[in-house]
């Protein structure tokens, strides 16, 4: 078994403030004996408008937020998964999940495929959708499949990761309160049950500005669909939760209930 730390926080438009929060969670994760820290979507910043968000985006290689977390990962021998904003050639941004290994190196990254256009929140106005499902990355925790927030509603990506034997699926998120209350736990359980993988969903919580509030409830669900962690939290304090990820238990679940897909009838994803 390996200990995973799940970070929950309330990002603001200040990248330096958010980095300090995340580095405080790194310290807590190390004290808890974790091998990896999972942080939410948009951990680098959440702005009050698309224009402000675009002005704050930095290339992954020169972002002070990313460089700061890389240094923290290396100094503490701790892997970190986090979602950030990266400018693209079109003038928009990518919503990107990166895996920083315990040596401080960016080992893999994934750009969010499905963009959140709901009510007044129109992610597609400022974000370019990703172009590919990135293969699972080998980590100190096991084989990890990277996804982000709204991707949770589309099982095709998680099933593609299952086919590639991903043992852990990540959904760093900033769910709205209405959609969180309606669907968050249900969807996370569904993805766990159908893929027989651990689901780790670190989430933003609280009011980021006068326009936007996140649901919180960072959650970990095991391969049988049991909720191992639900960080209800109070207010918007930055905190961690910890869980044991038992990959042998996952293998027992797979052996006891084989999910044999009928790809002779329908196409393989």
From TrEMBL:
<feature type="domain" description="CN hydrolase">
    <location>
        <begin position="2"/>
        <end position="247"/>
    </location>
</feature>
<keyword id="KW-0378">Hydrolase</keyword>
<dbReference type="InterPro" id="IPR036526">
    <property type="entry name" value="C-N_Hydrolase_sf"/>
</dbReference>
<dbReference type="Pfam" id="PF00795">
    <property type="entry name" value="CN_hydrolase"/>
</dbReference>
<dbReference type="GO" id="GO:0016811">
    <property type="term" value="F:hydrolase activity, acting on carbon-nitrogen (but not peptide) bonds, in linear amides"/>
</dbReference>
<dbReference type="InterPro" id="IPR003010">
    <property type="entry name" value="C-N_Hydrolase"/>
</dbReference>
<protein>
    <recommendedName>
        <fullName>CN hydrolase domain-containing protein</fullName>
    </recommendedName>
</protein>
<dbReference type="InterPro" id="IPR045254">
    <property type="entry name" value="Nit1/2_C-N_Hydrolase"/>
</dbReference>
């Amino acid at each position: 078994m390996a200990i995973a730390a799940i970070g929950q926080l309330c990002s603001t438009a200040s990248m330096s403030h958010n980095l300090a929060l995340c580095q405080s969670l790194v310290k807590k994760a190390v004290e808890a004996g974790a091998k990896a820290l999972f942080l939410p979507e948009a951990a680098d910043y959440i702005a009050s408008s698309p224009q402000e968000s675009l002005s704050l985006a930095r290339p992954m290689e020169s972002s002070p937020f990313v460089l700061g977390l890389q240094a923290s990962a290396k100094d503490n021998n701790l892997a970190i998964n986090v979602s950030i904003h990266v400018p693209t050639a079109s003038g928009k941004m990518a919503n990107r999940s990166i895996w920083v290994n315990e040596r401080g190196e960016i080992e893999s990254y994934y750009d969010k495929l499905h963009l959140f256009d709901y009510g007044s929140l129109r992610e597609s106005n400022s974000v370019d959708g990703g172009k590919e499902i990135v293969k699972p990355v080998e980590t100190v925790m096991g084989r990890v499949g990277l996804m982000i927030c709204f991707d949770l509603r589309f099982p095709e990506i998680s099933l593609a990761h299952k086919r590639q034997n991903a043992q852990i699926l990540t959904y760093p998120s900033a769910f709205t309160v209405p959609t969180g209350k309606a669907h968050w736990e249900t969807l996370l359980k569904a993805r766990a049950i159908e893929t027989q993988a651990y689901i780790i969903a670190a989430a933003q919580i609280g009011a980021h500005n006068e326009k936007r509030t996140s649901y919180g409830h960072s959650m970990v669900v095991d391969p049988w669909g049991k909720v191992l962690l639900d960080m209800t939290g109070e207010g918007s304090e930055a905190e961690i939760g910890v869980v044991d990820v038992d990959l042998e238990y996952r293998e027992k679940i797979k052996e006891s209930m084989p999910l044999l897909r009928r790809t002779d009838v329908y196409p393989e994803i």
